[in-house]
Amino acid sequence: MGCRSLSRWALLLASSVAAVALVPPAQAQRVVPKLQVVCPMGYVDTFNGKCSTLGLMTYTVAPSQGKACLEGWMNVGGGYCRKK
Question: What is the pLDDT along the chain (84 residues), one digit of tens a residue?
Fold first, then answer.
């Protein structure tokens, strides 16, 4: 392998690691950013670009990024999946 091939692989690896690092871990949230026109089920629109449970509940949610939810998670709309 030439030097250029190694540098391409190193760049690809570094960008993959950076992309994974940018995905926030799933955690319980009372307020989440509004990703779509509607808020996820259980959240209400606070009209400031966020959705809130109004302090009544805490859900573990993660953005679905347009993909199907992982096993053990359910789609709650608004671009989010919630842990079952």
Answer: 554 555 665 555 555 444 444 445 567 899 999 999 999 999 999 999 999 999 999 999 999 999 999 999 999 999 999 999
In 3-state terms, what secondary structure has residue 9?
helix
Separation between Cα atoms, residue 76 and residue 30, nearest integer Å:
14
Q: What is the pTM of this model?
A: 0.67
Q: Give the domain ranges of the chain.
A: 25-83
